[in-house]
Specification:
Length: about 180
């Protein structure tokens, strides 16, 4: 693998996280008081998490991210609609979220769903006046922004003609070695 090829993923991650941060910040700033820096941060984290070595793996990671974020956002919105933030309540919401993912036969989505619960609930704890539903919807939207940016970055990035979508010399986790 040559130097250019070794720099591809770091460049994709850096570019995707920058674009996602700016887009997430801008989007969340449309909602006064809903912490645009958190919006940028959450979008950038999503872009980093979703960006993988191949287009196929990135797409797979994107679906995991979006569904997991949706489940986590719904669970935390329901909790925060009835109860204020509390660390024990957060742990219970995480438990319920991972349990829901298992019941829906998507247990691998549980980790990302749990992270979304933490972000929504901690953000809510920063300002009790935030609407639980709008807060959760914004965090879900920011997750989708970062996910979309990552998918676009990987799909639009030029690839060698002999291996479309795959870094030369690198195999996907799903491919045999």
């Amino acid at each position: 693998m040559n130097r250019t090829q070794r720099l591809r993923i770091p460049a994709q991650i850096a570019l995707a996280s920058l674009v996602a941060y700016v887009a997430g910040y801008w989007f969340t700033s449309l909602f006064p008081g809903y912490l645009p820096k958190i919006g940028g941060l959450w979008s950038a984290i999503s872009a980093i998490v979703v960006t993988q070595l191949t287009r196929k793996d990135t797409t797979s990671s994107a679906s995991l991210r979006v569904l997991g974020s949706a489940i986590g956002a719904i669970t935390s919105a329901i909790y925060l609609t009835f109860l204020p933030f509390h660390p024990i309540g957060m742990a219970l919401a995480i438990f319920a979220t991972v349990l829901i993912c298992t019941a829906l036969k998507v247990p691998s989505h549980g980790r990302l769903a749990a992270i979304t619960v933490i972000v929504v609930m901690v953000t809510a704890s920063l300002d009790a006046a935030l609407s639980p539903v709008l807060n959760a919807l914004l965090r879900l939207a920011e997750s989708c922004i970062g996910t979309g940016v990552a998918v676009l970055a990987v799909c639009l990035w030029p690839t060698p003609a002999d291996q479309p979508g795959v870094l030369p010399g690198v195999q996907s986790e799903e491919e045999p070695r």
